[in-house]
Amino acid sequence: MRYLIIGAGPSGLTFANRLLQWGETDFIVLEQEEVPGGLCRSALVEGSPLDIGGGHFLDVRRPAVLDFVFGFMPQEEWGTYDRISKISIHGQMIGSPIESYIWQLEEKLQAAYLKDIAAAGCNTGENPPERFVDWIYWKLGRRIAEDYMLPYNRKMFGENLDQLGTYWLEKLPNVSYEDTLQSCREKRFCGSQPGHAQFFYPKHTGYGEVWRRMAERLGAKLKLGEAITRLDCQSRTANGNYTADVIVNTAPWTSFEHIEGLSEAGRAVVDSLRHSAVVIDYFSGQMPTDAQWIYYPDAELAYHRILVRHNFCPGSTGYWTETNATRALPLADSQFRHINPYAYPLNTIGKNEHIQTLLRELAAQSVIGLGRWGEWQHDNSDVVVSKALALADSLMGK
What we know:
By secondary structure, the protein is of the alpha/beta class. It contains twelve helices and 21 strands. The chain has helices at residues 10-21, 63-70, 107-118, 121-124, 132-140, 142-157, 177-186, 208-218, 264-272, 351-363, 371-374, 381-395, and strands at residues 3-6, 27-31, 42-45, 48-51, 58-59, 78-82, 85-89, 92-95, 198-202, 222-224, 230-232, 237-238, 242-243, 246-249, 258-260, 275-283, 293-295, 305-308, 319-324, 336-345, 367-369.
């Protein structure tokens, strides 16, 4: 065939459907699960959808992505929400991002935070440090680092934070002393809005519905329950019996039992890639909050965040926790548990340079990495859709 696509998550499904839109039909999509959608799949729990990959929503900021997605699930089937996220800290709930809502804390704490923000290296002109933990202090100040950002990241990514690079944090704006002071004086949000400040979520289904419809559009060109364990890059063959001119891989490189045709340097890159797994636990009942996200830096709690279903999925109840699999407790009162063995690619030191080395070597053999796992980037679904559209358009000469 012309194209072999491994993985039917958002990137693989988008790429395949874009090929169809350009009239290309000589391809097949192989997915190891029996349900398409990857980390964006949904399950029906207590009569309402639950997103088993954690919290996934459609950002409003990419018109080309929205046009494409609404071609499968029209806009009238989506609700639009202003993001409400909160942080559980100092025994209370405050808004997020933390620097814009410390005015909700008692005045003594406000003064301490303001003092440390003013002394943060990014505000005093110091050069940014290279180690992750030092960089967090430099960027955010001591109190935000120690009370929130460092404990939260340890819960999410593991205790050894200095294995992580700082290159992926550069998009974070500096915590402005002036903006924070203004918000404390005026008791309101000041500063830059975070990502997903506004998002779409289906009115009557889970987020997995749009990917199910994309999969349905592919018909027999999608094969579910087809796990790829062996990949030969030189012959562009998967499992010894699927051969293509071009392989587009969206699965984790470390999930293959054998990858043939890699140089020693390429194999070393694959061996160096790290990721985290998460456990999703569902709980019944109504949470007394208007937040959709709640972040928990408290090390005594296993989970690092809660997603409150009834605040973005009309007519539903309940909430679900997201926990790094290394911290997950035995199943107790939750009615539903799902384990995602591949949840987040870790942005370890040197990872960007290493993965580019691997992708260049593979591309020379017409094997292309795409999406969160094919490119080993912590990209949201709107970003991987955008990248998949661009790749398909490029290969089709559009």
